[in-house]
Design a protein that fits this description.
Length: 251
């Protein structure tokens, strides 16, 4: 039986900045103001990655973060994590080459109903290749239904079923989870432990004092932010900007 986690120790450790990206494309006339918070133009994304490389940030993967949070295992200087939500095809077309340029690895939280949904999304072959190249594939539910609403068979539909599908695609155990819209409730967290997830990722809400490993914070890679603004937010509690970003899925 696994030893219980020392939540106080996890909370006491310095938080590692974790960036969360969604669509990487140029803005359209039809995009609303709020959409542009999470749709980042390719030139801006490239500037973000160049800033991270030039500033000496070292992208890490979830196992490294988990070991640091739970045991105090050492991390490289200026650690950061790069995460991508929702299976968007531009994460393959734009993000992948940019990460490879700098030797970066990322975490891809896959919504399985979007796999090969249309030309805007990745297919199983691309997801497998990302995994084979050393990136981490993780679960982001079947269809992006809000975690707060799960009951009954939803745990199978939204978590068990997509996890099994991703394990079949990658040939690897799926150990990490991201909440749709970054929203979670404490009552549902034991279900993630029960299913063997090591950690789960939200956005910028305060962590759960009783389960910080399942409520790890991330910073939205805002489309409005220059590389300088991103660097500032990483250094100042990595993006607690005093507003809640409402996420929708736009294509």
């Amino acid at each position: 039986m696994a030893q219980p986690l020392d939540n106080a120790a996890i909370l006491a450790r310095k938080q590692v900045p974790i960036l969360c990206y969604h669509q990487i494309r140029n803005w359209r006339a039809s995009d609303k103001q709020v959409d542009k918070d999470y749709i980042i133009p390719p030139a801006t994304f490239r500037a973000h990655m160049k800033m991270l490389a030039d500033s000496g940030y070292h992208p890490i993967l979830p196992d490294e973060l988990y070991n640091y949070l739970t045991t105090g295992a050492p991390l490289p200087a200026k650690p950061i994590m790069l995460t991508f939500d929702d299976t968007d095809g531009d994460q393959w077309d734009v993000a992948r080459p940019e990460l490879m340029k700098y030797g970066f690895k990322g975490v891809y939280f896959i919504t399985t109903t979007d796999i090969e949904k249309n030309k805007h999304y990745m297919d199983a072959k691309k997801i497998k290749q990302l995994s084979d190249e050393g990136n981490v594939i993780a679960c982001h539910t079947q269809d992006h239904t809000n975690f707060r609403h799960y009951k009954g068979n939803d745990w199978y539909t939204q978590i068990d079923k997509p996890t099994k599908r991703l394990e079949k695609i990658t040939g690897k155990e799926i150990k990490y989870f991201a909440f749709p819209f970054g929203e979670w409730n404490a009552a549902g967290l034991p279900e993630l432990h029960k299913r063997g997830f090591k950690a789960a990722f939200q956005l910028t809400s305060p962590r759960d004092n009783n389960d910080p490993i399942m409520t790890i914070r991330r910073l939205l890679g805002c489309g409005y932010w220059s590389a300088t603004t991103l660097d500032y937010n990483i250094k100042h509690d990595f993006g607690k900007v005093g507003k809640k970003v409402v996420l929708a899925k736009v294509k």
